[in-house]
Amino acid sequence: MTNSELGLRVSVATLNRVFFPDPHSGTPMLALERKATQSDGGVYVRAQPFGGAVRLLDPAALSALIGDFEYDSPRSRSEQDFRILIRPADWQTVRDFCVRHLRNDGDSVLETDPGRELVEEFEECLQAKLEPHHYSYRSIGMVVENAPTPTNNARSPGTPTVRIYRIYEVQISDPALSLALLTASQQHTEALLRDKVLADARNGGRGRANTVLTIAPDVLRNAYLRLAPEERYAPINVDGHLLTESVLAVLNDIEVPQLAWQ
After folding, report:
1. Residues 250, 63: contact at Cβ < 8 Å?
2. In sequence order, what are the residues at sequence separation of 6 or more whose Cβ sits closer than 8 angstroms to the Cβ of residue 212?
3. Quick one: DSSP state of residue 50?
4. Which of these, 71, 115, 146, 234, could form a disulfide with 76 (CB 3.0-4.6 Å)?
5. Within a 10 A sphere around the Cβ of 174, how many other Cβ atoms?
6. How many domains does one find in the chain?
7. Which phi and psi angles does 143 have, rounded to 5°?
8. Rg (the chain; Cα; Å)
């Protein structure tokens, strides 16, 4: 098989709707991961849900159904990330395979626990150790993006991609961690993030910086509801912050034609 036959990229990930109480008012707040990266000489800052690629623990189980597939990069292969290239005709089979296995807690084929990614990202964004007693979580379903769109992921830029997300609601219960989330959001301005990215690049790094953005859920929902349903699945600016379209995947009460809840 030639690589040109593997023309569809499938990305499977967990996304987390991270809630915490404002330590001053008790108002529920949503925490997003805010990423800044150097791009084309400038710095690109955007916010997205906490989460990351699901690990494909048993590639042979998928190969038995569709035959050959490829990872989208050597890094995805080495990390077992479910970011793969398949024949477009195999999409229905792959989608059903993922939905079936993602429903199983502790599945032996696909990773289904959000804890690993949460711990890693809180360490990166807050320099804080997320312990099991700091939070609780529950699965609230899955979202499937059926229509392929070109990805801007650096591992496979421009490749038509469909996405499957398992969505979790995460409740932060630790007061100190709640305060750290709010403080990081307030102190790390866009300008400060840009300065950190440029300094990192000058010092030989990858030109990256991560922190947190906290926002009241009602502010976020109202911003989307001002748009027509067919216009919502796109990056949006809310209070001066750019949010990726993946934020919509954790808001199950906002109509989005491009996303199907399972």
Report:
1. no
2. 31, 32, 33, 34, 125, 126, 181, 184, 185, 188
3. E
4. 71
5. 16
6. 1
7. -125, 135
8. 19
For residue 38 the two structure tokens come to: 């150097």
Q: Could you give the CA distance from residue 206 to residue 202 in angstroms, rounded to a whole number?
A: 9
- CB under 8 Å to 107, separation ≥6 — which residues? 57, 101
Strand partners, 45: 36
Is 33:189 a contact under the CB 8 Å cutoff?
A: no
Q: How many residues does the chain have?
A: 262
The series of mean pLDDT values per 10 residues for the chain, 262 residues long, is 76 96 94 90 90 96 96 95 96 96 93 91 92 94 90 78 96 96 91 86 86 95 95 94 94 91 88
Q: Which domain holds residue 114?
A: 3-261
Contact residues for 25 (Cβ-Cβ < 8 A; gap 6+): none
Cβ proximity of 188 and 31 under 8 Å? no
Bridge partners, 50 (sequence order): 16
For residue 17, the cross-strand partners are 169
